[in-house]
Design brief:
Number of strands: 12
Number of helices: 44
Strand order of the largest sheet: 4-5-6-3-7
Mean pLDDT: 84
Strand content: 5-15%
């Protein structure tokens, strides 16, 4: 559930424009303005479509609006002007063009331009779009104008082929400054998508869109419009999903084809071959393409040469995945066959996974049957890349050449079954496993196949049919004779109990197993996530984090063979850090860089939401949970959809959306079949907190039920939170009793970290009727990511509630503005309106009202005791308004 390795989904400032939002490029604009102040000009360099011209237009518009003394002269580069010598200088010297000039003529040309510039009012600024297209003579003139400061230069230029030689010299001499413009970051793509589509977007969709477009703003706009026109970008459960990865759309296809039409025939061969074959070793391309064409494509920035990090082989690939998609979808069948035969004459590159299944898929589309071993290897490679559709296609092609009982056929069917399960296609997975069951070999030689088959069947039973007992029976009854598989069965059983939420039966055994050093490292790693989660929920949070951090610092497990284990450790470590009250620490685990490790994007998006909720950024949190749920609606192989619903209910309750919170809670309760219960207590606590905030009649009973379950399982973290929520419920109508506070204290003593003392102190303040102290402690808890539901405040807008809760957490108006990406003036206005609506005059009074209190005399309460409580009367509260 960790967002480690991906964006945190932070807010990004956008510029509103007609029809499409733009990312705010203020830092780039400021860098370009600074270049104009410090040098003779600036050259804005970047790939096509990244917004170079837009940036320049914003700058010139700003200069005109500011009524500066500069006169802006645009020197444009349409084809009819660049086709003639010094044609783009027409705005300065008129439309008379001659033949290619000699040295003397260049000098006269420079002087003519200088005279024209001297006649202009103010300081001249020459703006040149697409500087890389100008002829050599014009480049010399522009360079001379800049060097002699006859005018300043502001130009755009593609990274490849780069500026003309004369201008490049000035850049190296620092007489002109270069400002690099890259594609949009992941955060910027997320912000643009969310704004353009006017709603949350599934993380997997954001990631795919960013990956396909490379952050290119032009490609991004056309891709989204194309997908919507084609019905491939749809709204599911309140969030947007790209539901058909095979569809790119007509608009973007037309745009890319127009770009490709500018290539020479030899360059187009390079583009088509690399699109169809995938990353290809340079030596294999030698006889299939022209070297000059490959160099030209590299210079244009369309192809990149890079050494593989695993085998060190230098390969060529197309830079933009969208080019790959469009070419694959549009190359005619006859040309496919011709190109395939040309490359196959040089032998296929079957060592790179992407190249392997691209080449095999290419062969099948040409009506060519690749070798069976290549089909098998390609299917496995596609499974590692989670492409269920391609796995199915390649598996079918391979099975057509294998006997049903062939071990390779059994392996392929189980690979496809696992792929289908992860894609949510449980029925297809069951059909393949039934076929495998009829042909499993007996004896020692078939043990590995039988064990793999049993685990896949058990996964369907536990995560598809919500029957953990059937899954445990399947695992127990498989015939195994070797000690390593006995150990694997023991660990598998314990992990299944944890994922079923049954820590009472499994946690102790997990600890004892982890203490033994004689087990294989991969086997020990496979139970770490369950153990970290169990220890954290049992209240042993510091121990849980130590275990996770030690494991990550010494991580050696082969993620290519065990792709999910690292994610499990990172995810449970993320939750443990949140549970102990350290949201920022949750985002900063020991550094792990393993590209082979797999993550579930929808679960990661839940993690993004949890982080935002812990920071009081409830609107962002809600968008993340909705995005995750839209993906879970398509596939949810591990049962985390209900967890997202519980968190959505919690966030909506914090925002005061009663109807939405109630609906999300009902979704959670009706989706329990097949749900993962590895963090069941966490979900139940959030649902209970939402119920408290909504003032529901059964809120107290929900807290009592959670307390009873947690105590039975030995999960004292949730027992503590359940008892604390019960005190909050009591405070809404009366006051918590001393017995209730003592009951809470008993659980809090079993929970490591700073939250135990704070929740006990808060409950004691409630019991004493000390509104001011309770408000301050609620703010301290909010800093630690714990929201205290307010039962009576119903007449604030969602934005006002979000800001009010951050005020209670002790943030100043400026800090709130920075966190929510608002202006300080906007926050000032909101806070003033909040004060007026609630009838309060200070931030302390606001904190008291949010705690459900009416004005009561403040009683000093010093808290102490064996749980190591702080003295909350010393807690400061900011009073800035």
């Amino acid at each position: 559930m960790t967002p480690h390795g991906t964006s945190r989904g932070r807010a990004v400032r956008l510029i509103s424009t007609a029809g499409w939002p733009l990312a705010d490029r203020s830092p780039l604009r400021e860098a370009a303005v600074q270049a104009l102040d410090e040098a003779s000009g600036a050259v804005i360099v970047g790939d096509p479509g990244v917004g170079k011209t837009t940036l320049v237009r914003e700058m010139t518009t700003g200069l005109e609006r500011a009524a500066t003394e500069q006169t802006v002269v645009w020197l444009r580069t349409p084809a009819k002007l660049i086709a003639t010598p010094w044609g783009i200088l027409e705005p300065l010297i008129g439309a008379e063009h001659g033949p290619e000039p000699g040295v003397d003529e260049v000098g006269r040309l420079i002087e003519r331009c200088r005279r024209a510039l001297r006649d202009l009012p103010g300081r001249p600024l020459l703006v040149i779009d697409d500087l890389h297209l100008v002829d050599a003579v014009t480049a010399v003139v522009v360079a001379e104008i800049a060097q002699t400061q006859a005018a300043q230069i502001l130009a755009t230029c593609r990274r490849q082929p780069g500026p003309p030689a004369a201008v490049g010299t000035l850049l190296r001499q620092n007489l002109l400054h270069q400002v690099d413009v890259a594609g949009l970051t992941y955060d910027e793509v997320e912000a643009v998508l969310t704004t353009a589509l006017q709603g949350p977007v599934a993380l997997e969709t954001i990631w795919k869109t960013w990956e396909v477009t490379g952050g290119n703003p032009l490609y991004l706009r056309e891709l989204v419009r194309s997908l919507r026109d084609a019905g491939a970008m749809v709204e599911v459960d309140g969030a947007w999903v790209w539901n058909d990865r095979g569809v790119v759309g007509r608009r973007l296809t037309d745009l890319i084809q127009a770009e490709l039409a500018t290539l020479s025939p030899a360059e187009r061969d390079v583009a088509d071959l690399l699109a169809l074959a995938g990353p290809t070793a340079i030596e294999l391309l030698a006889g299939a393409i022209e070297d000059a064409a490959l160099t030209a494509m590299t210079d244009r920035g369309l192809v990149v040469l890079e050494a593989d990090q695993h085998d060190g082989v230098l390969r060529a690939r197309l830079v933009h995945p969208v080019h790959v998609d469009v070419i694959r979808a549009t190359v005619p069948p006859r040309r496919r066959r011709i190109l395939y035969e040309r490359l196959q004459n040089e032998s296929a590159d079957v060592t790179h996974p992407a190249a392997l299944f691209s080449t095999v898929d290419w062969a099948l589309s040409c009506g060519v049957t690749p070798p069976v071993e290549d089909l098998i290897a390609a299917a496995r490679a596609a499974a590692k890349l989670a492409d269920a559709r391609l796995v199915r296609r390649l598996t079918e092609a391979a099975l057509a050449h294998l006997e049903p009982a062939d071990p390779r056929a059994l392996d392929l069917r189980m690979t496809r079954a696992q792929s289908d399960r992860f894609a949510g296609n449980f029925r297809a997975a069951r059909e393949d496993l039934d076929v495998v069951a009829a042909h499993l070999p007996a004896g020692v030689e078939g043990e590995q196949l039988r064990w793999r088959h049993a685990r896949l069947v058990a996964n369907l039973q536990q995560y598809g049919a919500d029957d953990v007992d059937a899954a445990l029976t399947t695992i127990e009854h498989v015939e195994l004779t070797t000690p390593p598989l006995w150990q694997a069965r023991q660990v598998d059983r314990l992990v299944r109990l944890a994922w079923a939420g049954d820590y009472r039966r499994g946690l102790g055994e997990l600890e004892r197993f982890a203490e033994r050093k004689d087990h294989p490292q991969a086997l020990r790693a496979s139970m770490l996530g369950s153990l970290i989660a169990g220890l954290g929920q049992a209240g042993r949070l510091e121990e849980s984090l130590r275990l996770a951090d030690d494991a990550l610092r010494s991580w050696q497990t082969d993620s290519e063979r065990y792709p999910w284990l690292l994610w499990e450790v990172l995810g449970t470590r993320f939750l443990a850090a949140l549970w102990i009250g350290d949201p920022e620490g949750a985002m900063n685990p020991p550094h792990i860089d393993d590209p082979m490790a797999k993550v579930d994007d929808a679960v990661v998006q839940v993690g993004h939401g949890r982080y935002h909720a812990a920071r009081g950024e409830w609107s962002l949190a809600t968008a993340q949970f909705r995005g995750a749920l839209s993906r879970f609606a398509v596939r949810d192989p591990s049962g985390f959809g209900p967890t997202a619903s519980a968190n959505l209910s919690y966030s909506l309750a914090a925002l005061g959306d009663r109807e939405g919170a109630t609906r999300a809670r009902r979704d959670y309760e009706t989706a329990q079949s097949g749900a993962s219960r590895v963090v069941y207590g966490d979900s139940q606590m959030r649902v209970a907190a939402a119920s408290v905030a909504l003032g529901e009649d059964d809120a107290a009973q929900r807290c009592a039920d959670l307390d009873a379950w947690s105590s039975h399982q030995g999960l004292w973290l949730w027992a503590m939170h359940a008892r604390h929520l019960r005190c909050v419920v009591e405070a809404a109508s009366n006051r918590p009793t001393r017995m209730q506070v003592d009951h809470l204290t008993h659980a809090a003593r079993r929970v490591e970290g700073p939250l135990g003392p704070l929740v006990v102190a808060h409950a004691q303040a409630l019991a004493e009727g000390d509104a001011v102290l309770a408000g301050r402690l609620a703010g301290r808890l909010a800093e630690r990511g714990v929201w205290i539901p307010e039962c009576r405040v119903t007449h604030l807008t969602s934005r006002q509630r979000e800001i009010a809760l951050l005020v209670r957490a002790g943030l100043s108006n400026r800090e709130i503005a920075e966190r929510l990406t608002l202006s300080v003036r906007t926050v000032d206005t909101h806070v003033g309106n909040i004060f007026e609506r609630l009838g309060v005059g200070t931030r302390s009074d606001l904190a008291s009202v949010l705690g459900g209190f009416r004005a009561r005399p403040r009683h000093r309460l010093t808290v102490s005791g064996s749980v190591g409580l702080v003295e909350p009367v010393a807690v400061g509260l900011r009073s800035t308004y």
